[in-house]
Design goal:
The structure is a single chain. The protein is α+β, with helices and mostly antiparallel strands and 501 residues long. It has three domains: 3-294, no CATH class; 306-431, no CATH class; 439-498, Arc Repressor Mutant, subunit A (Orthogonal Bundle), CATH 1.10.10.410. Helix content is 39%, strand content 19%. It has helices at residues 54-66, 170-187, 227-246, 292-299, 306-317, 321-328, 331-343, 361-379, 390-401, 407-420, 424-431, 439-452, 454-461, 467-478, 485-498; strands spanning 3-14, 70-71, 74-75, 78-81, 91-94, 101-110, 122-135, 139-143, 146-150, 157-163, 199-209, 219-221, 254-259, 264-270, 280-281, 288-289. A nine-stranded mixed β-sheet has the order 2-6-7-10-1-11-12-13-14. Strands 5-4-15 form a three-stranded antiparallel β-sheet, with no helix packed on it. It is elongated, with a radius of gyration of 30 Å.
Length: 501
């Protein structure tokens, strides 16, 4: 039988503030010794009173604006009562009745696995039910019959984003979370690092026979800490549940974990009934009122977001969807690219059209996506740490477009620029890398290559035209890569045709 997969996702985003949600302890406890960022307030000591972190509230509103949410300008804090060792107070301070943000949506593109755009790609909208602000719990570590707790994370500002059940497969879930991760990084409100726990995901999913409307039995997959784990866990569960339903088995309402090594879900606990959290207003905190002026100030802090930037890169610069995605996946890379564009703002359009094409945008994009990314990955260097300046890369693009050097030589030049920070023109002059476009020089080199390869010439003249590229390659090699490839191609064809006569 065929089944529809219905998925809603809860995502917990740790906000990158200096201090915790309700106290002055450092919120940056990842990798620190256990229990060094703890005070009486986040440890739940009697008489210790909480104070609201204003910046965390602003970060929450920024994300709400980015997710097209309504913002609750009057809300209050509530106690969510439950007791685990990682929650020392026995309750969590959170928002329940009036979340900070509600009734929004996130639009994103579901592309192929490489990030490109093809006929199977499509635009997707997922509704956001709510995004509420709360404090994080501590971290439990189990070893044998003992459990250890680290309260460094306890009290860190946490934003929980809950979607409607609008996601219908593992690939859409991956694309949604990837888009959300990009947004929190663009906003600068969170690192979004899933491997470090700064962003944690819990899909809720069920299956139902195609053509039916009733939801199936829901299972929850807890604390997935990578995008690949999200895709793998949902895909596995879809197969497991469909196989069970085909056998007439009932799906149990359970909480699952993901075993990344074995690639399977594992039952953590049964979840037959909803918990009674006994919410009630937090007596130690006042209601939170957001003025129109404060909200306007926060709105002004929201930058151009990835999907809007991608559309602009395609319309203004004539870039492909793939190039636009690759450049905007990382905010720092996008900013670096735009500095390169700005450095050539006086160049004017390359030709009249319905939109202005920057004459070097495509070349800049190719350099960044290809050679520069390769060099950065090999050296473990971020783009804001490299020696090359955006204007210098624009200078290299100009040399290629002017046919001063060819694309192969540009690869050598960009590597030298990356290592030294020198200007492209200076490297070309110092190393004698300028492209050879003198037809008399090129014709002599071609003559030498043809003389050295008589068998290939003979076979070409007999009809094996694929040998043309071999002969062109030999000529490029003889010129040490400095020959003009287009001229070589044309002159080689002419020289071979003369030998037919």
């Amino acid at each position: 039988m065929d089944y529809d997969i219905i998925i809603g996702i809860e995502t917990h985003v740790e906000l990158d503030t200096h201090s915790k949600m309700f106290c002055t302890c450092s919120a940056n406890g990842f990798g620190a010794e256990p229990n060094v960022h703890v005070c009486p307030t986040c440890a739940g000591m009697p008489g210790a009173l909480p104070v609201i972190n204003k910046r965390a509230v602003e970060f929450s509103m920024m994300l709400g604006v980015a997710l097209n949410c309504s913002i609750n300008q009057h809300t209050f804090w509530e106690r969510k009562s439950y007791w685990y060792p990682d929650l020392p107070k026995g309750y969590q301070i959170t928002q329940y009745q009036y979340p900070m943000c509600y009734d929004g949506y996130l639009e994103f593109d579901v592309r192929d696995l490489s990030g490109g755009w093809n006929e199977q790609s499509y635009r997707k909208r997922v509704r956001i039910r709510r995004a509420h602000l709360e404090e994080d719990t501590g971290k439990l570590t189990h070893a044998g019959r003992s459990s250890y707790v680290d309260y460094n994370r306890s009290g860190v500002p946490l934003l929980e984003i809950v979607t409607e059940p609008d996601i219908f497969n593992a690939h859409e879930a991956y694309a949604y979370l990837s888009a959300l991760q990009d947004i929190v990084r663009y906003l600068g409100i969170s690192t979004g690092d899933m491997e470090k726990g700064a962003m944690r995901c819990e899909p809720n999913m069920s299956l139902r026979p195609k053509g039916t409307d009733a939801f199936g039995t829901k299972v929850e997959i807890k604390n997935l800490n990578s995008l690949s784990a999200v895709r793998g866990a949902i895909a596995y569960e879809a197969k497991r549940q469909s196989a069970a339903l085909d056998k007439g088995e009932k799906i149990r309402q359970v909480t699952l974990g993901w075993d990344d090594v074995r690639g399977v879900t594992v039952v953590q606990r049964e979840k037959e009934d909803a918990h009674d959290y006994r919410y009630f207003p937090e007596p130690d905190l006042p209601p939170l009122d957001v003025s129109d002026a404060w909200l306007d100030e926060v709105r002004a802090q929201v930058p151009e977001l990835p999907i809007a930037k991608q559309a602009r890169y395609q319309s203004e610069f004539g870039l492909s969807a793939y190039d636009a995605v690759q450049l905007t996946n990382n905010k720092a890379v996008a900013e670096w690219f735009e500095k390169g564009i700005s450095a050539g703002k006086d160049e004017g359009p390359v030709h009249p059209s319905s939109f202005i094409l920057h004459p070097f945008a495509k070349r800049l994009a190719n350099f960044i996506i290809g050679d520069l990314t390769r060099l950065m990955n090999a050296s473990g260097t971020a783009i804001n740490q490299i020696k090359i300046k955006p204007a210098q890369l624009l200078g290299l693009a100009k040399l290629v477009e002017a046919q001063t050097i060819n694309s192969n030589t540009a690869k050598l030049v960009i590597e030298e620029m990356f290592n030294t920070g020198a200007e492209a023109q200076a490297i070309v002059q110092a190393k004698g890398l300028a492209q050879v476009s003198d037809s008399s020089v090129l014709e002599k080199t071609i003559g030498d290559v043809l003389a050295a390869n008589p068998k290939e010439v003979e076979n070409y003249l007999k009809g094996n035209e694929k040998l043309l590229q071999f002969l062109v390659g030999q000529t490029m090699k003889a010129s040490k890569g400095k020959a003009n490839p287009q001229m070589i191609q044309s002159l080689m064809k002419a020289a071979l045709e003369r030998r037919r006569l």
